[in-house]
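Q: We require from you a single protein entry containing the residue sequence and its fold in token form, and nothing else.
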Amino acid sequence: MDLHEHEQVLIYAAGDVIPQAKIPERRHYPANAPILHIPKRCPYCNKKLSRKKNTYFCENPECLRVSAGLITNFLVKLKVKNISDRTIEDLYANQLIKEIPDLFILTVSDISDLPGYGTDKAVNIVTELEHLKKTPISVSTLLGSLGISGISEKKAKKMLKVIPIN
């Protein structure tokens, strides 16, 4: 779209869920505003970004954002509250978690020792994870939350209608 910094665009409903953006007939942006450039390297790991259609993404499995993002996605899909994306990045960067199962062995003392975290915040995180362990979750919701490429909760439900689970 060759957008400039601080340029105005129109956002409109193009379908059921996903909004679209378009440039108005009369473009409006500050004088001398630079054209926006999409970075070609990941800001977290500095590896070259991959492109699929209009989306750029990092495919480096060792990238903090990719790995922590999968864990964050799991928590978001299961509607876990009070555990932010930043918290997951901190836990990952400090090697307290590397994958989803690691969440469930975290202790208050593990978390409270991190800079910027205290006992109260650590207790809140562990309590939220304990609550998740006791919450019934459908198989389709669990599959949809794992970050498996091409598998959403909706697709998992469709598959489970034809594939029995013992």
